[in-house]
Design goal:
5 helices, 0% strand, 135 residues, mainly alpha
Length: 135
Amino acid sequence: MTRTNENLRRMAWGSLFAIGFTLSPISWWNDAVVNLPIAYLAAQLVAMLDQRLFLFAFVGAYWATNLIGLLGMHVSARKLLRQTEPRISLRRFFLISLLYTLLIVALAQCKWIQSPFNQLMGHKAASGASLTTGQ
């Protein structure tokens, strides 16, 4: 393999590692900046189909972003280091993801994280009720 091809290969795998790190639960800042907005947008799309699925979609998308990040780091690290044995503690990452997920569910249950469709649907129902009752 030529030097240029080797450098391109390392840059590609390094880029995947950086993206994986950004999505993974290893970086402390990623939830507020990356994972929660992605999960929120994905949950909004699902909520357009059925509002009751918002929380499940939000948690599922959040877990998916973390899992994609961990897998991206795992695959790229193995390729960069040319290792055959994984060296990443999946138990630790699972526990961190579980704790973050419990926090997200708690925030959603306290209505700190909610779909704006709740307000729109509530507003329509209230205005519709006033039309039918004549008030």
